[in-house]
Every structure is written in C-alpha cells, then in structure tokens.
C-alpha cells in the first residue's frame, strides 16, 4: 500500500498546555551589570557608588564608543547614558543599543529638561529619561521601573516563542491528519484500480526528478510529490467497467475516463488549500501544450508549471507500463515519443528537463 510521506510530518501526540514564564525565570546574574556613560567623571563616580551599593557590577565610560566596546565585551542589562557628549551622543548610542542589544534597558540622562527630546528618546526605545540634577532615590526608583519593564519585555518575547512553537506543532499535527485523509483516498482508488498504485508512485518520483532538473525550490518539489501521488484520484468517480476494461476504449468511454482530472480537483480543492501546486497537477496533468487538452483547454505557459512537469512524468510511465491489453514501450521508445510530441502535447522545456534527469540517473525504467 502506498504511503504518502511529507518530510515535515510528525507524530499526532497532543501537546501540553503552554506554561507562561514566571518572573524568576530571568537569570539573576543577567540583572546585575550596568554600563554608565557620561563625560563627567564625578557624576559617573556617584552613579557607580549608588549602583554598586544596590548589587550591580558597574562599568563606567566617558563616551558612546567606549560604551559600545563595553557592551560588546559582556552581556549588559542596563545602560545609564548622558544625552549630550562629545563624539557619539546618547541618542546615537541608544539607536545602536536598540538595534544590536534589544534586551538591554536604556535610561537617558540630560541636564536639559526638554519634553520634545524626552519624548523622542522614549520613541526610540529608551526605558526612561532623567533630568540633572537628580536625587539618588529617584535614580534608584527609575532603575527599578526600567528593569521591571525589561523583565516584562523579555518574558513576553519568550512567551511569543512558545506560542510560535505551539502553532508550528499544531500545523505539523494538521499536516499529519491531512496526509492520513489523503492516504484513505489513495487506498480507496487502489481497490478500484490496482495499476494506479505503482503508477502514482512512479509519476511522483519522476515529477520530482524533473523538478530538480529545472531547479525548482523545495516547496514546489514537495507539491510535485504530493500531486504525483494524487493526480489520478478522480478515477474514484470513473465507472469500474471502463476503468478496468481489458481492451481499447471507445470515444465515449475515453471521454468518460478523462473526466477524472476535474473530479479529482473537485474532491481535493477543499483539502489542498495550502498546496495549490498539487491541485494544479491533479486538475491539469492532461492539458496539452498546444491547447487541445482537458479539462480547460489551456495552452503554453497558461498551463501551471507543476502540471506541465506532471504531464511528461505521467505519459512516460503510462507508455512504459505493462497493461492487460498492450505491452509497454521500451525506455528509449518512450523517450523518442516524448521528443516527437514536444511542442504539441508537452512543453519542450519539460521534455529537456526529463532528458537531463535521465542522464543524471534520477529516472530509470522500473525504478
């Protein structure tokens, strides 16, 4: 029995509820380092004494460039920086910190009580804004508030990652359930037409090989694989007397069996919303490059790429397969027929890609 396999499919175990990170989950060691930036040494000394008393490891520097070097050297929780300094000022330093160390809290310090400047700094990501002269207890309170804001930001980011992991896990579970439903359809078709089982596996393999030769991306290759497995699923709606007829089909019987692409498309359209390329294979693998195919009479590049690939893969396997009413062609004869019909039934570029896949050893008769 054919099994439809996706590289990203996983088990169906129901995931446990997401725990929200507790405040204590933020490492205490990570909350103990502060870089103090000011071009006034005496003010730096005052802040260093205050922060050291409160248990922080302090690094004090005189300008923005030195501050960046200190931040590069070791993870830092908090930056206390003057606004106006020679060289790199506090605003430019703030931009660098927000871009490179988004989890580091920044408190701006300025001798100018300018509301517009304060608002602009907060808009750039500063946690707070202090005006000189300040009381040490005010500094202590603002630092406490800034670290609490930082903790909430870090906690919410971790929670967001957990949510994303949960969504990804649910997506994998849905994909597994989807593949199981597709498998049930494939099994039902095999009961009606045992030939379809091996045919669909080979068409899927050939289509992926052609897609690789064309340089298709991983998503397209995955949809070619799935579409190849399911391209004949519409034959579920074809009368068994016609499907299993041991001899050539009449015109009416042929017209009836060629309804299977649209039947399959109608059956799978609600299920393959996230796999439009696979749906293209199911609906359009019997379109012809010259526009005389079914069900829509598409021509040339109006036929979806995946369907043009599948048309070559499907025809090659059909020509080389043994059926009760005829013998299969040799590989060389089938290749010659593909080349003969390039430009009319098949896209010549797909036939060329098929030939490259054969020469590369990715397509072998009976593989």
Would you give an account of this structure?
Helix content is 55%, strand content 7%. The protein is an alpha/beta fold and 367 residues long. The chain has 14 helices and five strands. Helix 3 (90-100) links the parallel strand 3 and strand 4 (105-110). Helix 5 (136-192) packs across helix 6, helix 11 crosses helix 12 (305-320) and helix 12 crosses helix 13 (331-340). It starts with 32 loop residues before the first strand and ends in an 8-residue tail after the last helix. It has a five-stranded parallel beta sheet with strand order 2-1-3-4-5, sandwiched between helices. The model is unreliable at 5-30 (pLDDT under 50). The longest helix has 57 residues, at 136-192. The chain has helices spanning 41-53, 64-73, 90-100, 115-124, 136-192, 194-214, 218-230, 240-243, 251-257, 260-268, 276-284, 305-320, 331-340, 348-359; strands spanning 33-37, 57-61, 78-82, 105-110, 128-131. The chain has two domains: 23-160, Response regulator (Rossmann fold, 3-Layer(aba) Sandwich); 193-359, Orthogonal Bundle (Hypothetical protein af1432).
Element layout with pairings:
Blueprint: E1 33-37, H1 41-53, E2 57-61, H2 64-73, E3 78-82, H3 90-100, E4 105-110, H4 115-124, E5 128-131, H5 136-192, H6 194-214, H7 218-230, H8 240-243, H9 251-257, H10 260-268, H11 276-284, H12 305-320, H13 331-340, H14 348-359
Parallel strand pairs: 1-2, 1-3, 3-4, 4-5
Helix pairs in contact: 2-3, 5-6, 6-7, 6-12, 6-14, 7-11, 7-12, 10-11, 11-12, 12-13
